[in-house]
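Render this sequence as a predicted structure.
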Amino acid sequence: MKKRRKLNVQKTFCTISASFIIACILFYGFRFITLYLDNKKSLEAQADTLAKVINDNNKNDDTFKDINGDYYFSGKVDDNYVMYSNMLWRVVKVNKDNSIKLVSSDNISYLAFDDEITSFNDSYISKWLNTDVLTNQLDKSAITYNPICTDNITETNNKECENYNNELNFGLLSVAEYVNAGGEESYLNNEKFFYLSSIKDDEVWYVTSRGKLKSSSGNKLYGVRPTITLKANTIYTSGKGTSEDPYQVSSDTLFASFVELGDETWRVYEVNGDTIKLSLNDYLKVDNTEFSHIYSNDNYYHNDTTYGSLAFYLNQTYINDLSYQNNLLETNWSNGLLSSNYDYKDCLDTTVNSKIAMLSIGNIILNDNLNNYFLMSGNSENEDMVYEIKENGSMSEISVSSEAYVVPTIAISKDLLTKGKGTSNEPYEVE
């Protein structure tokens, strides 16, 4: 006769208890996740999109016009500013689908359009925006495809576009958009030259420093004002749309942020891994006076060992006055020649090693209020000439023996930025 197995009370209790605990975890965990998702959906439903805020704020305003289903800001508008990716933009229009077309408030670079005009898509500016430079720096999380008008435009009163390229994130204003916004009598007239995306046969349209529309061969170094389109569901966080209190939307990037070092304010114009490059947000000053200097006694080459050159002054004299000099990284800076075909890559690809340098053709320029200062870009046909930015939104050559203002650049580790928010009011600080 077989013996009956005794029931292990303790083991049974443990099994039942474990099953109960697992069941509770699954039940309450599921409820927690469900409640979290429901709450998130509720908060998102309550949050205002930027398009809704703009539409509500301007629905009875004569400067907010319905043109073919898109709502354009038109005329002398002062409440269509947006801060995105630490850059100031202007709202051009709210599209039918509630996506929002923005254009940079200022020129952020100076480039030739191309030496052979075919289309915006094949231009140097499109490559600079979408392939080589800007696309690598700007926060693209809220950006969607940015339709670019591809019509051949022969008349400046053109207000409609029939054909678009819908494959690019970054573009320029078209003639139609500039006209619909009010042209020279609008907020888009910044009294500086800047290119448009529209083509006229074998020429390209641009805006003059007086706000007029003209066309040319595209080999002049004029301003670049990029356009982007924000997604329809972009969430508004704060702001009234003025230049002092622009509409704010979230973005996560060090690019274009402000950094306070000693008594000086700098801006991040390039983020490359753990290294960030900054340009001074003002002219270099000595005894509170704007400082000017010759570039060199020889040529465009940035040689910080040549006595009397600007490179020598920056790296042997100016650096000694900086309380943060030990934080500066020695790195490569663009110091190339602009060739006869006007390709900005010629300026960027040739580099020189130094601690303090200056901006080059092809760099992002974040303070368009500064002008008449040296760039580290020479001319391939005359190496005794370098480029400077002019007050009217163009570039010109200047002899290396001439004097001009100075806007220095430096590089530091991004790990040093331990305090602040990166805004102009609360810049990052280095401890």
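Summary. The mean pLDDT is 92. The first helix runs from residue 9 to 46.
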